Input
Amino acid sequence: MARAVSTPRVTMRGTGLVAFWRRWGIYYLMMTPWLAIFATFTVLPVLAAAGLSLTYFNLLEPPRFIGLTNYRLLFVDDDIFYVTVRNTLYFAFITGPLGFFLSFFFAWLIHQVRGRAFFSIALYTPAMTSAIVLATFFKQNLFTGDQYGILNHLLISLGIIQQPIIWLQDQRTMMPVVIIVTLWASMNTGFLIWLAALGSVPQDLYEAGKIDGVRSRLQEMWYITLPSLKPQILLTSVLSIVAAFGQFQIQQQLAGLPSPLYAVDTIVMHMLDYAFIRFEMGYASAIAVVLFLVSFGCSRLLFRIFASDE
Output
């Protein structure tokens, strides 16, 4: 009697791979261009920064491995780093939530009135302007440190102050000025996402809400609109926080690099200082890795808070 020959595991594995490829291969092929771009411009730079953070590299000599020395210097000896961390957290946790709220509020407000296209363009226009151009406009017109600046002239005319305030040299006023300019420019991608999302909420939900006792626009927003837009809330909150952590152009244009007494310097500005002024690329890479981990941690926290259970 002939023995039954068992099918080798390799054959089964090969059959499974063939079946998997037949079912999903076309989708992975379609994703290949995006995956290649993502790996080239995101994954590889992160890995390169992590590698360089373990070296001493001044752009003139080959990188020399020094282990965790850069991180020890960063956390133990660099007092300015903690100043930039404080500035970054203060800036991010004000402009992030406020920019998120303002973009949603104005998108919701525009959604309630006629002439949406006009108001949408009017609010989105500052976001289309370069951050450097916008900061220069505010610096040379509104927040100039002489009596001819718009804000100083107005305050002197009203008798509120006697001498012009040097807005971008005083530690007490520099950060509020940066926050105001940043919020002015915050009607960007998040604002467009909210505009599109508000139009996607089914009208049946609002009609059902009226039957259940929802009467005002605010009740509609709280009980119907916001619960229906949980994925958009997650996306825009992550974009707002990440953008706040990566902000540096407005600060640099308004106050310089580094700013007076490091009053508005962020982690990114500290990194740029070491990378392109002192040419200590290994140390700058260590700062970049820390910033990446902080941004990633905040993003994961937002995912836990706003991620849908569906």
Observations:
- Strands lie at 55-56, 64-65.
- Residues 4-12 have pLDDT under 50 and may be disordered.
